[in-house]
Amino acid sequence: MTKVLFILSAVVIIVAGFFAFQNGREFAEVRSRIHGVNQSILAEKKTEQKGLKEVADVKSATEKVQADIDVEAEKLKAQRNKLSQTDSEVATTEEALAAKEKKKAEQDLQLEKLPKGMNPENMVESIQKMKKEMLEYQGQAEIKKKEVAAEEEKVAGIQKRLDEVNHKIEERRKNFERNSLTSRVIAVNYDWGFVIIDAGKSTGLTQDTKLIVTRGAQTVGKVSVMSVENKNSMAAIVPDTVVNGQVIMPGDRVILENLVQN
């Protein structure tokens, strides 16, 4: 009887040791999975912090470009003022030329009334002088017109640079708004594996845009945009990206996986 009890005790000890060993392995696997999830969360936090920094950099660059625009606008204003002044000088010159031509016409009329055969040398000399002055005024008018054309060309160049700067600002603004995308899951179809999010064409989303689904500070999974409407978009749940034990639900936050670089 003692021998039988001894054998039963040995069997019980062996079975207990086997279950203890099995439980230890499962516990180690659970700890390993928890460690992996924590590492994934830390990586996503670093990615989000990097994205916030890049958004701040874009904002700083936008402010710098805006300052450049203000400078160019002041230059454009100065050039326009100078152009206006030049136009005024041209008008004054043309008025003076018209007055000289009028005076010449009056003198020509007086010469026609002189007796036949009369040759007043001083009057001829005066007329020649007036003709010379008229030519000088015409030359000055041509110079002023060339100056006006040159100023208009400068203004056109400044306007072109200003338009280019405005275009760059608009592109950076669009990229900034796209990188700042924060939308929500509003519906989930678990049977077909897709979600509906409250972000449409105005946010810059396109087909195949990759998005990260988060809940609080935790990453739940990833989705890929399939179609974009005016206000909403449909995205497919990317297989094998949903964290074990998690399910994408309405209300989860959606952010870009990759930021647009300027």
Low-confidence stretches: none
Q: What gross morphology would you assign?
A: rod-shaped
Helix content: 55-70%
Q: What's the N-to-C terminus distance?
A: 86 Å
Radius of gyration: 43 Å
What's the helix-strand series? HHEEEEEE
Number of helices: 2
Calculate the mean pLDDT score and round it.
77
- How would you classify the helix and strand content by structural class? alpha+beta
Query: Could you give the order of strands across the largest sheet?
Result: 1-2-5-4-3-6
Biggest β-sheet strands, sense, barrel: 6 strands, antiparallel, barrel
β-strand number: 6
Which oligomerization state do the chains in this entry correspond to?
single chain
Indicate how many domains the architecture comprises.
2
Q: Beta-strand level of the residues, as a percent range?
A: 5-15%
Give a brief description.
65% of the residues lie in helices and 14% in strands. It has 262 residues and is of the alpha+beta class. It folds into 2 domains: 60-177; 181-256, Beta Barrel (Thrombin, subunit H), CATH 2.40.10.
Description:
The chain is built from two helices and six strands; from the N terminus they run H-H-E-E-E-E-E-E. Helix 1 (2-112) packs antiparallel against helix 2. It folds into two domains: 60-177; 181-256, Thrombin, subunit H. It is rod-shaped. It is of the alpha+beta class and 262 residues long. 65% of the residues lie in helices and 14% in strands. A six-stranded antiparallel β-barrel has the order 1-2-5-4-3-6.
